[in-house]
Amino acid sequence: MANRIGSISLGLLTALVGGEALGSLVMATPLMSPPLTITQNSSAPLTVDVLKNLSYNIPDQGTYPLNNGVFTGGTFNLNLIKPIAIGDVDQDGDQDAAVILRWGSAVGPEELIYLAVVTDGPDGPIANPNTYFLGDRVRVQSLVIKNGQIRLNVLKHQQGDPQCCPSALVSEAYQLNSGEGTLEPITLNEQQRQEIHIQDLPSQELPGDQDEPFQPPVDQFQIQL
What we know:
This protein is mainly beta and about 220 residues long. It contains two helices and eleven strands. It has helices at about 50, 190-200, and strands at about 55-60, 60-65, 70, 75-85, 95-105, 110-120, 125-135, 140-145, 150-155, 170-175, 180-185. The strands form three sheets. The protein has a five-stranded antiparallel β-sheet with strand order 3-4-5-6-7. Strand 5 and strand 6 form a beta hairpin. The longest helix has 11 residues, at about 190-200. The radius of gyration is 16 Å and the shape is globular.
């Protein structure tokens, strides 16, 4: 599916299962200007709190500042959900992050899921250079940063699946094109897909429903990958 949203009739760890919203709803106004950034000493690691209060760009929509993991825009909500991964995406020696965003319509059933990269380096503040559309009502089962690649196991729909319940487990990988500042999918062979499937999937599901707010312990996000 194209990396974009249609009309609004329509929204670290490797062992966390995707889908729980982080934070409470707050009213705010969307920004159509370039993404806001949070200035932070690059020697300090990214924290969950920083990621929950950063601005994220949604393709073809705009830039939205999260407050405690949530932006409410009247006809839609944008949530930072788990899992979250910490690691060096651009391979500059500094810790970056990959997060999952859920765009939910207030007037329709759409639940659009995005992969967002967050970079931190000595030459600039923490920012979200690019966000990639993963699909409608897909479920991210694992998220890992390894060797500069963002690796995911995602449940996607196959023929016969209801919209609520995708059942096809797909292994994917993305990399940041530093020159263009864009996330790009990596073509994987079968061996690489099996590696992601076997190595990255959590050994067991954590408690909590996909639609219930859930705040994992902070130390669970701070693992170096």
